[in-house]
Amino acid sequence: MDLGNLREEKRGQSYFAGEYLCKVDEKGRFIMPSPIREQIEAEARGVVFLKGPEQSLWIYTAPEWERVLGRMQSKLDEDQSRLFMHFIVSEAGNSDLDKTGRVLIPGRLRKLIPLDEDQEVVLVGMYHRIELWNPSDWRRYISKTEDHYEQNIGKILNLL
């Protein structure tokens, strides 16, 4: 196995993992945690925010978002593609990491994540994307899905 080629392949895609609590400032910016920031900066400085389920936002690196668009274009028929473009792509918002590692949550999408008084958000690594949650909503979601997790943990652990 050629390690040079393997490194080259991996450099083109990020794999996000972990859970991070981030403080949001009055302008809607937060400092991207360094493990995530390093991966984003290795690919590009830009990220794309999308409306996710359960009052969450999904964050993709710009190159990963381009891969998603290409995948959708090749897998969806014309009608599905139009729906995807009208209801998902039209609501996407771009943001760049500044020199200090801060990223701005686009205003119209920020309104979808009701911030508590402490102005914090939770970032959760999800393979090729990051999910952004209000901490209270995140805890409710985890609590609500805990039974489903318990039912599936055996299969998950066997795959490890």
Brief write-up:
With 160 residues, the chain is α+β, with helices and mostly antiparallel strands. 45% of the residues lie in helices and 24% in strands.
Describe this structure in words.
It is found in: Cytoplasm, Nucleoid. InterPro entries: MraZ, MraZ_C, MraZ_dom, MraZ_N, MraZ_sf, SpoVT-AbrB_sf. GO terms for molecular function: DNA-binding transcription factor activity; transcription cis-regulatory region binding. There is one protein chain. The chain is of the alpha+beta class and 160 residues long. A six-stranded antiparallel beta sheet has the order 1-7-8-4-3-5. The protein has a two-stranded antiparallel ribbon with strand order 2-6. It has one domain: Transcriptional regulator MraZ domain (Chemotaxis protein chec), CATH 3.40.1550.20. 45% of the residues lie in helices and 24% in strands. It is globular. It is built from six helices and eight strands; from the N terminus they run αββαββααββαββα. Residues 1-11 have low confidence and may be disordered.
